[in-house]
Design a protein that fits this description.
mainly alpha; 193 residues; 6 helices; 2 strands; Four Helix Bundle (Hemerythrin (Met), subunit A); two-stranded antiparallel sheet
């Protein structure tokens, strides 16, 4: 197994670690008051940090695989799986924690599955659908939105700026637009009954 695939596996293994720090209460770690009556536990800080590290490995493993010519079928399978596991798990957790509306998680997760389905259909036709620039920006905004929600809008809460909410809305819009873009650009691979 090459380095790029090992990094991808690390991202998959970090998913339950993020979940543990996000959902299990570690009261003994303490919390800090970040203003506006909001307290963030240190375990939430740890969850956000691990989430960001895991998200950054997405670009790292892809860069290593391409630059060192290590692209493998295993990597093509694991990389999108790792991305979807990470973002889906954290979105569902944020819904559970009542920090995110369920419809937002459904829209984002549905788009991910729809585009994955499109890629599978295209692959069966021998067509490879590469990530678009819009899709990459969508990922960036999703990561920023999720990290902001984990940290309860810190440090913007004390300034009265709804940064997390703004990022969520941008992420939702980018998610929908990039999903539509994938289907429009690749409509030739969609079987018509």
């Amino acid at each position: 197994m090459n380095l790029a695939n090992r990094i991808t596996l690390v991202r998959i293994f970090l998913v339950p670690v993020v979940m543990i720090f996000l959902l299990v209460r570690f009261d003994y770690l303490g919390s800090i008051n970040v203003g506006g009556g909001v307290h963030i536990t240190y375990s939430e800080f740890i969850a956000a940090l691990i989430f960001i590290i895991a998200a950054v490995t997405d670009g790292l493993d892809g860069y290593i695989a391409r630059s060192r010519k290590m692209v493998t079928n295993l990597g093509k399978f694991l990389d999108p799986l790792a991305d979807k596991l990470l973002i889906s798990a954290v979105l569902i957790s944020l819904v559970e924690m009542q920090r995110l509306d369920a419809w937002v998680a459904v829209v984002i997760i549905s788009r991910e599955f729809a585009v994955t389905g499109l890629r599978l259909v295209a692959a069966a036709e021998g067509v490879v659908i590469a990530a678009s620039k819009m899709g990459k920006w969508k990922t960036v905004f999703q990561i920023v939105a999720v990290a902001s929600l984990i940290l309860q809008n810190f440090p913007f809460e004390s300034l009265g700026i709804p940064f997390a909410s703004i990022m969520v809305w941008i992420a939702v819009i980018m998610t929908i637009v990039s999903g539509v873009e994938y289907f429009i650009k690749n409509k030739k691979v969609i079987p018509i009954a």
